[in-house]
């Protein structure tokens, strides 16, 4: 297991290096035109463009440009050319809201997805199974921005049951923090609950047909022990993989629409504002941050997967 973990962590470092090169090429090399002009934004003067060209070394060889770009990203020297704010500071300022949204929603969609999926599998073919299947398809199909807008308007603005937007820091008011995030958590989680319930239902039904289940029953194990200790444990393997990658995507900017609808002022909303203004430095930094979360949690998922299924460690 230790060798598997070390091998996976080494692969993670190599993948992060490759991702940083790809992101650099996408932003600075592949597009046509002057990278300094793209970096400066829509309202830059010729003097500003020339200053950015010298600052970023766009007149230097490509490997020098890559080193300069990575140095600026990781040393906090990345500045937005639209509002002149430090990009790293803005990301750190918005990270608590994004983390709060992502963690809360991820817990909700994992718990409800597993509960509904297991219940539907145990009631396969019955009315409850069909009802959960219909609700799951509706949840998967409804756009999160549309659902969030409806919830914000009717439950927030008109009914006044919940705040229609905004973020309250956890350290300032824990109850207010949770109260402001109920609607964003629900809107974002419903997108995944339907998917997870369908995946787990199929996995549990497949597990119930496996020979080891019949063997466990023949040994006299109770039905509850067979389901929890054998079927559900193996059926959670694809769910764990999905959860880790989906959580990473949400952390890395996948909740842009949810943050924008509920005005959470997180990393996703910061990236959306930068995209609207064609402000390249914040988009570059958020893209690298998202890639980091995806690769890191991908490695964590592989390690957890290996802990659940020993067969993975020998591959």
Q: Class of one domain, according to the CATH hierarchy?
A: Mainly Alpha
**Which structural class is indicated by helix and strand composition?**
mainly alpha
Find the count of extended strands (DSSP E, 2+ residues).
0
CATH superfamily of one domain: MetI-like
Task: State the shape.
Answer: globular
The termini sit apart by: 12 Å
Which runs of at least 5 residues are low in confidence (pLDDT < 50)? none
Please trace the helix and strand order, writing H or E for each element.
HHHHHHHHHHHHH
Helix content: over 70%
Question: How much of the sequence is in beta strands?
Answer: under 5%
- How many helices? The count is 13
Determine the mean pLDDT: 82
Radius of gyration: 23 Å
CATH structural fold name of one domain: MetI-like fold
Q: What is the level-2 CATH architecture name of one domain?
A: Orthogonal Bundle
Largest β sheet strand count, sense and barrel closure: none
Chart the SSEs and their pairings.
Elements: H1 2-29, H2 35-40, H3 46-56, H4 62-75, H5 87-122, H6 127-141, H7 144-158, H8 174-208, H9 211-218, H10 223-254, H11 256-261, H12 267-276, H13 280-308
Short description:
The protein is 78% helix and 0% strand. With 315 residues, it is mainly α.
Core attributes:
single chain, globular, 315 residues, 13 helices, MetI-like fold, mainly alpha
């Amino acid at each position: 297991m230790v060798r598997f973990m070390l091998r996976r962590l080494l692969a993670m470092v190599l993948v992060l290096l490759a991702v940083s090169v790809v992101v650099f090429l996408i932003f600075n090399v592949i597009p046509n035109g002057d990278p300094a002009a793209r970096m400066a934004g829509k309202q830059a003067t010729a003097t500003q463009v020339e200053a950015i060209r010298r600052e970023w070394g766009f007149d230097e060889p490509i490997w020098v440009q890559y080193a300069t770009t990575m140095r600026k990203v990781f040393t906090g020297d990345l500045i937005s050319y639209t509002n002149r704010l430090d990009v790293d500071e803005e990301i750190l300022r918005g990270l608590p809201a994004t983390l709060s949204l992502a963690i809360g929603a991820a817990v909700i969609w994992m718990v409800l997805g597993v509960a509904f999926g297991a219940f539907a599998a145990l009631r396969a073919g019955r009315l409850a199974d069909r009802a959960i299947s219909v609700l799951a398809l509706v949840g998967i199909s409804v756009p999160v921005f549309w659902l969030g807008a409806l919830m914000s308007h009717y439950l927030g603005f008109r009914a006044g049951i919940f705040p229609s937007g905004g973020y309250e820091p956890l350290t300032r008011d824990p109850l207010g923090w949770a109260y402001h995030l109920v609607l964003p958590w629900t809107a974002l989680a419903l997108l995944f609950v339907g998917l997870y319930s369908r995946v787990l239902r199929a996995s549990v039904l497949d597990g119930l047909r496996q020979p080891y289940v019949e063997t466990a029953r023949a040994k006299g194990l109770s039905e509850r022990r067979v389901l929890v200790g054998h079927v559900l444990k193996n059926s959670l393997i694809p769910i764990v993989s999905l959860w880790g990658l989906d959580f990473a995507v949400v952390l890395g900017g996948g909740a842009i629409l949810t943050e924008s609808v509920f005005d959470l002022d997180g990393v996703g909303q910061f990236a959306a504002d930068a995209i609207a203004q064609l402000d390249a430095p914040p988009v570059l930094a958020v893209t690298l941050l998202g890639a980091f979360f995806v690769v890191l949690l991908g490695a964590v998922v592989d390690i957890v997967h290996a802990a659940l299924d020993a067969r993975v460690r020998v591959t």
